[in-house]
Amino acid sequence: GGLANTIQTNASAASIGGGYNNTIQINAYQSTISGGVDNTIQTNANNSTIGGGTWNLIQRSAFYSTVGGGLSNTVQATATYSTISGGRYNTIQTNAALSVIGGGYNNTILTSANDATIGGGFTNTIQASAPYSTISGGLNNTIQTNAYESTIGGGYYNTIQTNAYLSVISGGVNNTIQANAYLSVISGGVNNTILSNAFYATI
Predict the structure, then answer these.
(1) Which of 68, 71, 92, 156 could be bridged to 88 by S-S, CB 3.0 to 4.6 A?
(2) Both ends of the chain: CA-CA distance in Å?
(3) For every residue of 121-145, which 3-state class applies, written as one string?
(4) What is the pTM of this model?
C-alpha cells in the first residue's frame, strides 16, 4: 500500500506496509517498514525494521536493527542488533552493536560503544569505545571515551571522563568524575568533582 514505496533487488521476503517514499535496498532481505515517510533500510541490513515516522534510517549492514518511529533517527553502518525506540535526531554510530536508545532528543552512542544504553532525555552522549555504559536520562550528560561499564542515572551536565571506567554518577547537576578516576561514585548533588587519578573515590 501507500505511495512511491520501493523494495529493491534481492530483498526477498521484505515488506513495506504503507506510507510514502519508503525504501528497502538491495539484499536487505526479511526487513520491514510498516509505514511513515522517507524511511530507508539500506543494503545488506537484513532482518531490520522501521515501524514508522519520518526520515528514519538503518544504514548498510546494520542487520537485525530496529527504529520504532520518530523523526530522523539513525542506526549507522554495522551497528548490528541495535534499537532506537523513537524520539528525534537520535543516533547509534558505526560498530556500536547491541546498543539501545529508548527515545528523547539528540542522544548519541558513538562508534564502537557496543552494548551501550541511553534511556532518553536530551543531548546525552556515550562516547567512542565506552561499551556497556548507560545514561538513563536527563540533559547533556556524557560518558567519555574508554569509560566503559559506567553509569549516569540522570540529572543535568554530569560527566564521567576518559578512562574513568566502572564509575557511577547517580544524578544531580554538574557533577564530574575526571579522567582515570576509575571505580568512583558520586551519589548526587550539585558541582561535585572527583579529580583525575582519584580512583575508588566516593562523594
Answers:
(1) 71
(2) 58
(3) CECCEECCCCCCCEECCCECCEECC
(4) 0.98
